[in-house]
Amino acid sequence: MLPSILTLISWTLVIWVWMYVTRIPAMKAAGINPQDAAEPGALAVLPAGVRQIADNYNHLHEQPTLFYALAFYTHLAGTADAVNIQLAWAYVGLRVVHSLIQCTVNIVMARFIIFMLSSLVLLALAVRNMVVVLS
């Protein structure tokens, strides 16, 4: 379980670097003073390709928090069997695919399908842990 957690954290940091590598030059090109970013919506003038990377970085701090908690629980509870480890890796893989879609072509329906699949993986991991708790 722990390597899948580390991998998703590392992926989040890759997106963080990608965000600033694209955002800072775009802000300079648009003549945006960094202090202007303190106001909501100030960065809405940046190109969509720059904004969608920042949006993905934010998304990697939303639902994945459930994954981190559930993966740590699975590890600590001793329920990290082969199936649960595969589910954890499936979740990480789906989140990477989601990021790549959002940060490049940004096809909403493709992102939605991947998001739903990753949500179902989390649900399966939670249910498998609940079965152990309730038995």
Task: Summarize the structure in words.
The chain is mostly helical. The protein has a single domain (2-134), classed as Four Helix Bundle (Hemerythrin (Met), subunit A). The chain has helices at 2-30, 48-59, 64-77, 82-103, 108-134. Helix 1 (2-30) packs antiparallel against helix 2, helix 2 runs antiparallel to helix 4 and helix 3 (64-77) packs antiparallel against helix 4 (82-103). It is elongated. The two termini are 22 Å apart. The mean pLDDT is 96.
Number of helices: 5
C-alpha termini separation = 22 Å
pLDDT < 50 runs, ≥5 residues: none
Question: Could you say what the CATH architecture is?
Answer: Up-down Bundle
SSE-based structural type: mainly alpha
The helix/strand order is HHHHH
Overall shape: it is elongated
For the secondary structure, the number of strands is 0
- CATH fold name, please? Four Helix Bundle (Hemerythrin (Met), subunit A)
Mean pLDDT: 96
Count of domain modules: 1
Portion in helices: over 70%
CATH superfamily: Membrane associated eicosanoid/glutathione metabolism-like domain
Radius of gyration: 18 Å
Portion in beta strands:
under 5%
CATH class: Mainly Alpha
- Outline the biggest β-sheet: none
Keywords:
Four Helix Bundle (Hemerythrin (Met), subunit A), 5 helices, 77% helix, single chain, mainly alpha, 135 residues
Write the layout of secondary structure elements.
Elements: H1 2-30, H2 48-59, H3 64-77, H4 82-103, H5 108-134
Helix pairs in contact: 1-2, 1-3, 1-4, 2-4, 3-4, 3-5, 4-5
